[in-house]
Each structure stands twice: as C-alpha cells, then as structure tokens.
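Re: [ENG-882] Designed sequences occasionally contain unexpected residues at chain ends

Forwarding the minimal case from QA. Structure tokens:
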C-alpha cells in the first residue's frame, strides 16, 4: 500500500467523483482510477460503488476512510517535525473553534502565528463541539477549541484551557433580575434559550438541570452568543451561560447560582500525534492567556 494510493482514495471519497478527484490531485483520471483499483485488489474489497451519476463509499470504504486520513496526517506530522528541527514551519494548519471563544482572542492569536510563520497556510472553521472533535479525530483538523464533552474519543488529546462558573441570564423585567442569586430548582417551568445541541455549553446545561431534577423546555435554539443574549434580553426565555458573557453589550441581566454551581470548561483538542504547527499555536495561545498578546483595540 502506497501513500499516493491513500491520497487518491481520500480525494475520491471527499469529492464523490473520479474526475474532480483527479483534477484536485493534478493527475490523469486513468492513473487515479488504476491506483484505486490496485488498492482494492490489495485490500481484497471494493471501496466505491460506481454508477454513471455518482460515486459512493462501500462499507469497506467507510471503514478505511478515517484510518487513511489518520495515516496521511501522521506522515504530514513527521514531515513537519523534521522541518521544525530545522527551524521551519510549513504546510497547512487547520483550526476549528466554537463561534464565540471567550478564553482567548483567536483572531489575534492566529495573526501572531501568521506573523511568525508566514509559510503556513491557516484554515479555519466554526462548528459545534462534537463535530469539531470528530474532525480532529478523523484528521481533517489539526486542533480545535471547544467545550469539554461528557464523552470524548480515546484517540484524541484533550487539555484544559480555562474553567468558569455558569450564571443565569434573564430579561430586566424577569422576577429574577433583582435577585443576588438563584437556585437551579427555581428554574423549573421556565422557558429557555440555548445553543443548538452539540454547541457551546448545551450538553453541560442539560446534564446539570437533569441532575437537579429540573425538566426544561428550550423555546429558542441559536448557534451564536449574540443572538442568545438578544432573545434572553427581550424576554423569550432564560439561559445558563458562562460568567464571561456578562461583559457583552446586552439587555440581559446576569445572576449568580446557589448550591452546586456548574462550570464551563474550555479545552483544546488535538490528535495523539500533534503537528509542529499545532504545538506552536498552543504555545501562542498560552502566551496570549498570560496577557503578552492582546486583541487590537
């Protein structure tokens, strides 16, 4: 099995088309098809279902895809490690992040990284925590900044960046708005505004309220912080959010929680084989947290 075969296989799997995959890999389609057929012979199983209109992975293809991505990622990490010894960083750094990362100002961090290592192409995408962790596990992302999940795959590395308590956000007209603190039990019967499942602190809030015996109704689901606070501020529901959200301009009021206060834990996720670029980015993040890198303005 050759690395080029795996590269061709991943390209076809992602493009779902032999012609587009060949164009992406800058090879003749006949050569790419022959390489895939040789790989199928070696593995003793068809990897694609080919029709006149589309190309789909077989069960064997689905099993091979994450392993192929991991293998290619390991090879790229090995190349990066050698380059790092020579004082060079090159290639691509694929970063995933929650929509609102309050722990560190990611644009400033990535700008610093680009300033120090202009030869590295930075790719950035935002999504929910679960999706981003899976992207790291599958080798499509080098690093992701997410909220810790209750269950995380064994084949990724998770390191805590920061923890902070959750607080109640409510409208200024809410009876809770003038209180100094609120217990979780008092939230029974309230309508909630929250992130979509898999986003932000949604999983932690679900677990916390269930543990407290509070059944809740999520009336509004959003995928960004500003919308969540807007809906809360205008009385469409209450929310449990990280304490740092209180610094954002909003009508919402923020009240502390009594009893066993839940926390939001922001973590950085990498594969077990960390690329040199990802390691360097983590170092810059830690430098930013210490206050030596600040957002402009």
């Amino acid at each position: 099995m050759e690395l080029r075969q795996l590269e061709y296989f991943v390209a076809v799997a992602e493009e779902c088309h032999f012609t587009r995959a060949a164009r992406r890999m800058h090879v003749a389609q006949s050569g790419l098809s022959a390489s895939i057929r040789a790989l199928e012979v070696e593995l003793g199983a068809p990897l694609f279902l080919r029709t006149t209109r589309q190309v789909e992975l077989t069960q064997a293809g689905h099993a091979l895809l994450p392993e192929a991505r991991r293998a290619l990622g390991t090879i790229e990490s090995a190349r990066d490690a050698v380059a790092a010894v020579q004082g060079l960083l090159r290639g691509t750094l694929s970063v995933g992040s929650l929509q609102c990362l309050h722990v560190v100002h990611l644009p400033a961090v990535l700008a610093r990284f680009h300033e120090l290592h202009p030869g590295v192409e930075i790719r950035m995408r935002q999504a929910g925590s679960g999706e981003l962790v899976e992207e790291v596990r599958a080798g499509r992302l080098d690093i992701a900044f997410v909220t810790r999940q209750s269950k995380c795959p064994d084949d990724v590395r998770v390191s805590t960046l920061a923890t902070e308590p959750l607080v109640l956000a409510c409208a200024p007209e809410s009876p809770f708005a003038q209180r100094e603190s609120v217990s979780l039990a008092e939230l029974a019967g309230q309508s909630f505004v929250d992130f979509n499942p898999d986003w932000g602190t949604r999983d932690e809030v679900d677990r916390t309220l269930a543990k407290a015996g509070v059944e809740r109704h999520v009336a509004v689901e959003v995928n960004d912080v500003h919308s969540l606070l807007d809906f809360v501020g205008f009385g469409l529901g209450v929310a449990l959010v990280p304490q740092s959200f209180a610094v954002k301009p909003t009508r919402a009021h923020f009240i502390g929680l009594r009893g066993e206060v839940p926390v939001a834990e922001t973590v950085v996720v990498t594969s077990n084989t960390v690329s040199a670029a990802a390691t360097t980015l983590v170092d810059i993040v830690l430098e930013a947290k210490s206050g030596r890198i600040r957002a402009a303005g």
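QA comment: On inspection the terminal residues look reasonable. The two ends are 53 Å apart (CA to CA). Proposing we downgrade this to a documentation issue.
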